[in-house]
Write a structure and sequence with these properties.
Blueprint (H helix, E strand, L loop, with lengths): L7 E6 L3 E3 L5 E3 L7 E7 L11 E4 L5 E3 L2 E5 L3 E5 L2
Antiparallel strand pairs: 1-4, 1-7, 2-3, 4-5, 5-8, 6-7
């Protein structure tokens, strides 16, 4: 697992799916996927904890394999689970 430094957070981005009226799942590739789950936090993070569902700015992230590394200040909201 990655150990983020400072006020950085490791996030796994949610998979984006949309259901139609008939129940068919259609993946949406045209929208930025900017929600995810916090997997690890740096020692300087004050607002977030592991397991939080979050909304973040999708254009200011670092990527490593299938994970994102985001500064704490780039999170917009904590979502209800």
């Amino acid at each position: 697992m990655i150990k983020p430094l400072g006020a950085r957070v490791v996030v796994r981005r949610d998979k984006s799916k949309e259901n139609t009226i008939n129940g068919i799942i259609v993946p949406t590739n045209d929208k930025p996927k900017n929600t995810g789950e916090v997997l690890a936090i740096g020692i300087d993070c004050k607002e977030l904890k592991i397991g939080d569902k979050v909304l973040f700015n999708p254009y200011v992230v670092g990527e490593y394999e299938d994970l994102l590394i985001v500064k704490e200040e780039e999170f917009l909201a904590i979502l209800d689970k």
